[in-house]
Each structure stands twice: as structure tokens, then as C-alpha cells.
Design brief:
This protein is an alpha/beta fold. The protein starts with a strand and ends with a strand. Strands 1-7-6-2-5-4-3 form a seven-stranded mixed β-sheet, covered by helices on one side. The chain is globular. The longest helix has 12 residues. Strand 6 and strand 7 form a beta hairpin. The relative contact order is 0.25.
Length: 150
């Protein structure tokens, strides 16, 4: 997987498959920031990342609890995942900091939906994934790139 790329995602399965591919490049301590409108595929991409990391448990949108932790399985190479939905935080950095995600960054991959402009300060670098949904269609597109927090 390159440090940047783009792809058309005709189905939810394609979105999850991209997540599994991205997971192959992720390590504990990595931050992934997902951006895109409602229905763009952020949670589907996170399900794929979780599958690629080998986490335990079903992955769904953490909208009502803000953050959900998924433990690594006993399989070699499995990495824990912290899945955050920053939508309800409304850009409130204090509330995001109160989640204490920077401690999770040492041992897990942290994926933040709606995190653009809110979560970049959590790590020195992050993978930004921009998801879009074509109007009047189920076809989605993804663009991703590793960025520094500078």
C-alpha cells in the first residue's frame, strides 16, 4: 500500500476490502482520521481495518458512546483498535482530550470518524482518508495520504 492513493468503491465489500489493505500497513501507535459525509462509508472502512487488524468483537458506529475499544485477538500480529466518532464532539478539543486517546495510541490503532480538524494533534503523523459518496448512487470514492502534524 502506498503512502497515498485513491480508489473507487462500488460496494460496501469494496470499502471493507480497502480497510483490510490499509490495516496491513498499520502499527500500534498509528492514528487514522476518516472524513466524509454521512453514508460515505466511514464505519464500513473501519470494519475492514478491524478485520485486517484481527480484533475481537463486532464493529459498529460508536456515535452514542463516542469511543469503543476492540481488543486484539490471541492471533500473532493482531493489534487492538480504538474506534472514535468525533461527530458529537463538535470540534471540542477539550472533550476529545478527556477521552485520553493519546495513551491508547501506544498500544492500539486509533481510528477517528469525523476527526478532520479535531484529532490531528494526537500523533506526530496520521493517515487521512477522505471518503465521498457519488450523488444518487451507492458508489463511493476514497483518497488516502499519510500526513505530518506540523
Amino acid at each position: 500500500m502506498n503512502t497515498r492513493g485513491n480508489r473507487t468503491l462500488p460496494t460496501v465489500e469494496d470499502t471493507e476490502a480497502l480497510g483490510r489493505e490499509l490495516a496491513d500497513e498499520l502499527q500500534p501507535g498509528d492514528l487514522v482520521i476518516l472524513d466524509g459525509p454521512l453514508g460515505a462509508g466511514k464505519t464500513a472502512l473501519t470494519r475492514g481495518i478491524a478485520a485486517g487488524l484481527g480484533v475481537i468483537g463486532r464493529v459498529s458506529s460508536p456515535t452514542f458512546i463516542i469511543a469503543r475499544q476492540h481488543r486484539a485477538s490471541a492471533d500473532p500480529g493482531s493489534i487492538a483498535l480504538v474506534h472514535v466518532d468525533a461527530y458529537r464532539l463538535g470540534g471540542d478539543l477539550d472533550e476529545l482530550d478527556a477521552l485520553d486517546l493519546d495513551t491508547d495510541l501506544n498500544d492500539a490503532v486509533v481510528v477517528v470518524e469525523w476527526g478532520l480538524g479535531v484529532a490531528e494533534h494526537l500523533a506526530d503523523r496520521h493517515l487521512r482518508v477522505q471518503l465521498r459518496r457519488e450523488p444518487d448512487s451507492d458508489i463511493r470514492t476514497a483518497e488516502w495520504e499519510w500526513l505530518s502534524a506540523t
